[in-house]
Amino acid sequence: MKRNLLVLLALLLSFSLIAAACGSDDDSSSDDSDMADDAADDAADDAADDAADDAADDAADDSAAAEEEATADSDEGDAGAVDGEAVHGGTLIIQSSQVPRHLNGTVQSGYATAVPGTQLNASPLLFDENFEPQPYLAESWEIAEDGLSVTLHLVQDAVFHDGVPITSADVEFSIITARDNHPFKTMFAPVTGVDTPDEHTAVINLSEPHPAILLAMSPGLLPIIPKHIFDDGQDMKTHPRNTEDFVGSGPFKLVEYEAGSIIRMEAFEDFFIADRPYLDGIVIQITPDPASIVLGLEEGTTHLSASLGAAANVLRLQDNDDVIVTADGHEAIGPISWLEFNVNDPALSDVRVRQAIAYAVDRNFLADVIDQGITFPAITGIDSSSPFSNPNVETYEQDLDAARALLADAGYSDGDITLTIDYIPPSQAPYAEYVVQALEEIGINISLNVSPDFPTWAGRVAAGEHQMTINQVWNWGDPVIGVHRTYLSDNNVGVIWTNNTGYANAEVDSLLAQAGGEFDRDARIALYHQFQEIIADEVPILYLTTPPFWQAFQPSVQNPPVGIWGHMGPMHEVWLAE
Amino acid sequence: MQLVRTIAVRVAQSLGLLLAVVVLNFTLLKLTPGDPALVIAGESGAADLELLEQIREDYGLNESYLTQLTTYVGNVVQGDLGQSFFFNQPVTKLIGARLWPTILLVASALAFAIVSGVSVGIFTARRPESPVSHFATILALIGYSMPVFWTGLLVIILFAAKLSILPISGMHDVTFDGNWFQSWIDIGEHLILPAFTLGFLYMAQYSRLSRASMLEVLQSDYVRTARAKGLGERVVVYKHALRNAVIPVVTVAGLQFGSLISGALLVETVFNWPGLGRLAFDSVLRRDMPVLLGILLISASLVVAANLLTDLVYRLIDPRIRVGGKSS
Fold first, then answer.
1. What does the DSSP assignment read for B107-156?
2. Lowest CB count within 10 Å: A183, A371, A445, B155, which one?
């Protein structure tokens, strides 16, 4: 009897470890798959009811309304609201899963570089929530009447972290470096040179009007780096000072940089904005596993993160009263997940086939069920947060009959068309698997082509070896930077994130060229609207969802980074409440 | 003198082995699909032909296989493991910063596994039919069955999240500001969970192995003689039987050193421990060949060194090996 009791106790003790992990407290670490199943069941019921009532021409309104509702549900009031008067002090702990290659944003783009880079480096301009430029290192600026030059007037007393004054020569050096080395060639391609009539004036000369150049002077895209350090003849992309003893112009200076592990920064006392930054320092800890990041946020050891990972993590944090979760911020990044067609494929070259596929896919299901409500149905190739987005284009609300009719028109009977989808697991797997099921409903057989990692997938897509692929591309603020590259017919160059569809339309090329050189905002908007109508009709790409950059932070974080660049902007206004 | 000569021969053999490892790893990695230039482009969110070509030229990726191999081997012989494609820093610097955290983790896990495993094995061997012995058997089975990353997540949730008595991840408190002694206490606190997680699997193995070995040794004639002479049970077990019983454990521990390092990869990822394992995993995804080759070389060197050390420990434990005699 005694022995049996002891054995039973041993078994109970052994399973307590597992039970602790699998316990279902209302705000604790429930099994993620159980949460997903419950949420999916509820959302599926809701989605089925909603789908029956939605009309096609309400799609844009519904998407916007869903976005507002989701944002309201997630926020603890206004995410950017400030509680009390700002105080100095404290170290902000950020956990990020993104690994920067180095810290020099003039030669390296990407979120990973921009998050620390914008703390270490200032740029000529900041941007407000309406994508309007605001003074930063440039206290004022003028655009010439003919649009062929932009004059920047720099603040008078700005210095680098080593005390050397920031002058127009540094601005000239930074712009030319970015023009010649930055992966986003379109940002500064029209720059023919930069004149420096005096130490605080820089005149950017252009070969053609180029309105995108203003947004290209955002902190994450044009950091002003010290000419006296970097202009020594070494290759800028491999310059040792990109990581060692980095000297910048921003509100924080580098204390410690351990590649792939940690970036430690402290406040720069001589920052050119008086009484800023509020924080004593920022620590960016690179953490590959989002689960650890979520635990850190729940425990309070992490102040801020935008690397929340799966939908289950976002939903879990939303249920936690001690953490604020918001989709505000990062609007300029404009990520769009889409299904990309290789229009050179015999079947997919027919627009009716592409439209049929568009009618078969329910984007609301993707957003509400697959993504459990943390993404929103995409409308067009320019993110809805952009002033250039056209909400009134054809959105192909699910209509299986219309899909079948189009396929029949194109000469494909049920089951005689087989296509492949390339994708990278695990993040793209749900979308790919859903599309398989959706297209089976209209008689298209799909086989999935799994790439084990990014280089393999990118190689296939860049070489045009795919038929369809799941992809996510960022707008990067101005359409010239992140949108044109996908549709220009002369940009089908066998490289990933160029025109990998093979789409070619002379009218689209002309509209984009005109819009790219039009400084009048309203005229520019009209041109981009026309462009979006054409690509909506021709469907070289089926836009699926727009995944916002969900971020979570402690209530003590005041003035959180919810601007259009989010964490890719300077945090000199962020402060920590007691 | 014989010992010195033996070690010298073994070291020479090891160097040849390591050279073969370098060539083999280089060739195998060259055969894997995927272009490092595309990874760098992917990190940038954009790419163009000119950029990709320049990346390939900067890192010698356009050269022939033989040229790249001979260049690489020549550099390795001179102690230069090349530049990381991704970080553009010397591989030796990247590895150097992460080597000792991995060694600390692996050594701690191994020490925990051996000490606790042997202790449990001795206890259960002395009382084979006791309830505690059965409980230890069940625990060993559980430890052996659970994937190491799963164990890691569970202990994080229990001890770090729910009980909040140990840190969630990392090797150091990011806001730490203290003296060297406090620093080591801080590291120790962060080391507990990852070392336990990594060592738990092996503890289970060593407990079963030492139990079986001890049971066999306790049946030996010399142990019977020792008891007949009136020696206490504690002296019989720990002074006479243990040294023979632990030989298989030493053998297995030495052979498993390589798998410990690969197990550390998973543990380092789960616990965000800044070691070689995580760097290796990330380098695979990034096609960062120089870093991967450097890590493989270091790992191979550690395994070779561990096997050499195992042989030396044998000599310490068993005098029959020391004088060149055969063990019974």
1. HHHHHHHHHHHHHHHHHHHHSTTSHHHHHHHHHHHHHHHS-HHHHHHHHI
2. A445
Q: Are B100 and B184 in contact (CB under 8 A)?
A: no
Give the 3-state secondary structure of residue A227. Answer: helix
Local confidence band at A449 (pLDDT 50, 70, 90 cut-offs): very high
Interface test with A, best of B272, B286, B291 (most A CBs within 10 A): B272
- Residue A464 phi, psi (nearest 5): 70, 25
pTM of the model: 0.83
Q: Is there a contact between B282 and A99 if contact means CB atoms under 8 Å apart?
A: yes
DSSP A464: T
Answer whether A284's CB lies under 8 Å from A117's CB: no
* Contact residues, chain B, for A260 at CB < 8 Å: 87, 94, 278-279, 282
Tell me the per-residue pLDDT of B181-223, one tens digit each, with 9 for 90 and over.
998 999 999 999 999 999 998 888 888 888 888 888 888 888 8
Neighbouring C-beta atoms of residue B322, cutoff 10 Å: 13
Nearest-CA residue of chain B relative to A93? Answer: B174
Question: Collapsing DSSP states into helix, strand and coil, what is residue A472?
Answer: strand
- Return the residue of B nearest to A497 by Cα: B46
Best interface-test mutation with A: which of B169, B281, B292 has the largest number of A CBs within 10 A? B169
> Which of A364-373, A381-390, B228-237 is predicted least confidently?
B228-237
The CA-to-CA distance between both ends of chain B, in Å, stands at: 25
Residue B166 at interface with chain A, using a CB cutoff of 8 Å: no
CB contact under 8 A, B97 and A258: yes
Q: Which residue has the tokens 């700002």?
A: A86
By CB atoms closer than 10 A (0-12, 13-18, 19+), residue A135 is middle
What residues of A are in contact with residue B33 (Cβ under 8 Å)?
Answer: 455-456, 459
What is the ipTM metric for this complex? 0.80
Among residues 5-34 of chain B, which lie with CB inside 8 Å of chain A? 33-34
Q: Among A33-37, A55-59, A261-265, where is mean pLDDT lowest?
A: A33-37
Whether A397 contacts A59, CB under 8 Å: yes
Contact criterion met (CB below 8 Å) for A88 and A280: yes
Angle of helix A290-299 versus helix A311-318 axis, rounded to 10: 10
Least confident of A26-35, A117-126, A232-241, B4-13: A26-35
Per-residue confidence (pLDDT) for residue A43, from 0 to 100: 38
Q: Test B47 with A29 for CB contact under 8 angstroms.
A: no
Q: Is the pLDDT of residue A103 over 70?
A: yes
- Phi/psi region, residue A161 (left: phi>0; alpha: psi -120 to 50; beta: rest), is alpha
Confidence at residue B132, expressed as pLDDT on a 0 to 100 scale: 82
Which tens digits make up the pLDDT trace of A128-152? Answer: 999 999 999 999 999 999 999 999 9
pLDDT, tens digit (0-9, with 9 covering 90-100), for A458-480: 889 999 999 999 999 999 999 99
CB contact under 8 A, A455 and B46: no
**pLDDT band (50, 70, 90) for residue A191:** very high
